[in-house]
Amino acid sequence: MKRTIFLMLAVLLSALSASAYAFKVDGIAYNKNGDGKSVYVAYGGDYTGPVTIPERVTYDGATYSVTTIGDYAFSDCTGLTSVTIPSSVTSIGKSAFSGCTGLTSVTIPNSVTEIGWSAFEGCTALTSVTFNATNCKSPDRTYEAWFQDCPLTSLVIGNDVKSIPSCLAYYQTRLTTVTIPNSVISIGWYAFVGCTGLTSVTIPNSVTEIG
Q1: Cα(198)–Cα(161) distance, rounded to whole angstroms?
Q2: Which of 36, 109, 171, 210 has its CA 20 to 30 A from that of 21?
Q3: What is the pLDDT of residue 138?
Q4: Under 8 Å CB-to-CB from 147, ≥6 apart: which residues?
Q5: For residue 12, is pLDDT > 80?
Q6: What is the DSSP string of 25-68?
């Protein structure tokens, strides 16, 4: 009984924490990072239609760099149709876009070095991903199926990508082709597991490690 109450309180506190934000600008909610000079996008904004996240935001006379998309920031925002992520963003939090069923495409900029687990899980209209993150991984676990339950038909790997993360295309059965650029030196474990629609793939001689 005590364990059940504890778990319920933990979930409640987590939800309250995820929904708290310091201020809004142009419908986007923000919280300050510990350095006091930068902010992260938080849950609770007006996230419908196309959303463009700025590199910098000014509030109450101060200007902050936008460096992070926080945990659950856009979670279950079913009216979100597109999002533009600026090059100032270095990390995307866990479940940041999970359940965004109206999101059809996304570009991960090369500035991103960390993506939390289930970041885009359940985005059932997400068919196109451009992955430009040069060397990206999950900060909290090795299992990096960020696009699980997304019906990807197009996965573009940028020409500066050095490492294809583990589980990147986890069970993407609709993918028929993937081009691995010459910049890639390693392919993570289970990177293309369950991609039953793939008929051919060319691994460039730049690759020195395959998981």
Answers
A1: 21
A2: 109
A3: 80
A4: 120, 121, 123, 126, 129, 168, 169, 170, 172
A5: no
A6: ETTEEEEE-TTSSEEEE-TTS---EEEE--SEEEETTEEEEEEE
